[in-house]
Structures are given as structure tokens and as C-alpha cells.
Write a structure and sequence with these properties.
alpha+beta, Tetrahydropterin Synthase, Chain A, 4-stranded antiparallel beta sheet, 66% helix, rod-shaped
Length: 341
Amino acid sequence: MPLLAQLGPIEYFWIILSVAVVVGGLILLIVFARYVRLIVQSFFTGAGITLWDFVGMTFRHVKPETILRAKIMAVQAGLGDEEITSKALEAHFLAGGNVPLVIKALVAARKAKTIKLTFREATAIDLAGRDVLEAVRTSVYPKVIDCPAPGSGRNTLDGVAQNGIQLKVKARVTVRANLQKLIGGATEETIIARVGEGIVSAIGSAVTHSEVLENPDRITKTVLKEGHLDRQTAFEIVSIDIADIDVGENIGARLQVDQAEADTRVARARAEQRRAMAVAQEQENTATIEESRAALVAAEAEIPRAMAEAFRSGRLGILDYYKLRNVQADTEMRRSIATAK
């Protein structure tokens, strides 16, 4: 303390400045020691990322190693896209994208030479949730899709020819990814559904099932002629091949049997209706007969009364009555003889 008390303002200033320089130097040494490996790699690979860029990445919560590795990969692969800067890579990382995967996809597209893929398209595909590297690989090496899909719960595509014979078909669709339509384009399920619809329609247009069995390629030719199977999808159909085709049930015969059974049931119902109507008519006729018999009995009951009235009035005599009885007896006898013969 006595020594510090003897110092003047100038001495105090130099002491504070020296301490600040030492502290600053220590901080720079610590920062440089942390990023020295990254700086050396950036310098010798021509990545062009400076110390202050690495420090800024740390403050922005970006992994410097990831950005540097991606930038080195792009430089070494000869990607001359001006959009592939450290800032652009940082922005894609902060957006939740997979920076190394995007660069690998761009390198693969460049090696293929026939695939046009920009950094902007690759980052958009990656942020859309699609595997951009897998998409590039599918563009280079076409992918085979089973139709119907293995997890759809169906083993075959079933179609019925015009002669009523069912055919069970398994197909394989070879597709190539369409990178320009990968965002917003329909997925494999749409391709499978459209191909399945086309196969069933092609089988249905055949006159007989034997035509399809003799020339299975007529199915693929008919389906490919439609030309809209890969419209608005993320894929381009390369070919459609029939893997297996089997004969199923005779749907036409079964439908005819079902129709015959239905006609039989209708005929039985109509016959039962007519029988019920006949029974009702018979019952009505029986009732009418009974009414007539009752009327006859009532009329016969009036005969003795009329005869008694005729006897009283003198219009009928005893001899006339006996003659009438003789006539009746003769009539009954003749009737009995006729019945016995």
C-alpha cells in the first residue's frame, strides 16, 4: 500500500492498461486455443471461415464443427454454388435442417451429372421433411415398389375379365424420384393406387381371361398408355412389370347362381301369394255356398206353410197333394237308379 500510494496517475494508468492487455491476451489465447483446430482446417481446405465467424456461431448456438465440415465437403467436391456460404449453412442449421445431409445430396447430384439440384431446392426438400439424399439416390438408382404394398393387407390385385373369370395379379413399379416435384408431390401410395386401378381396368377390358394369361404385358401397355399415373407425384414411372398372375374364382358363374337363387325366391314368393289368394277365394266361395244353403233351407221351410195355406183356402185338394207326392217319389226313384248306374 505505501508503494501504491507513491504512484502517480500515469503509473496507475499503465498498470491498469497492462492488466487489461494481459486479461485480453488470455481471453484471446483461450478463444484461439478452442478454435485453433477449426481455423487451421478452414485455412488449409479453403473453406473461408474466419475466427470471428466461429465465435459468432457459438453465440448463435450453432455447432461450428458441423458448419465447417459441410463447407469443407462442398469446397472439396467443387460445388461452385454461390449460395453455399457459411451464413446460408448457419441459417439452414438454425431452421432445423440437416446441413451435412444437404451437402451430401448436392455432391451426389453433381457426381451423377444428369441431376439438376440447387442448394435452395435441397434445403427446401430437407426442411419439408423429405430425405433429400435418398431422393437423389432414387433419381440415380430407380426404386422398385410392390403393388399392392406389403402392409396394405392385400396380397394381390383382383380383376374380373368380361367372361367372369377373376385374375389375381402382383406387379412391381420401377420409379425414379422427380426432385422438382418432390415438394408438394404425392407419395408412393398414390402411385400404387393409380397403378392398381389401371391394372384392374385393363383386366376388365379383356374379353376372356386367357387373353391376359397369354400376354401379361398387355396389362402394362394398357396402364402405361394412360400417361397420367405419375402426374403431380414426386416420382417418375420408369416401368411396370407383372411379377405374378393367377386365376381366381369364376365370378360370372357365381353371380349367375346367385341370380338364379334370387329368381327362385321371387318365384316362390309369387306362388305363395297366388296360393294365399286362391285359399282366400275358396273360403269366400264356401261362405257363399253356405249362404245359398241357408237361403234354400229357409225357402224349403216356407213350403209346408204355403201348402197349409193352400189347404185352408181350398186351392189345393187332397188328391192333388197325393199326386204331387207320387211325382216326388217317382223323381227320387229315377234319381236313385241313375246314381246306382
